[in-house]
Amino acid sequence: MASHMPVNHSLRPLYRGLALLAGLFVLAFGVLGYLDSQGEPLLNQGEASALGLKTNPAFSYASIAAGAVVLLATLVGRNLDRFVDMWVGAGFMLVGTAMLALMHTDSNVLNFTMATCIVSYLIGSVLFTAGMYVKVGPAAKAAAEEKHRVGVA
Question: Which of 29, 4, 7 has the alpha carbon at shortest distance from 122?
Answer without folding.
Answer: 29
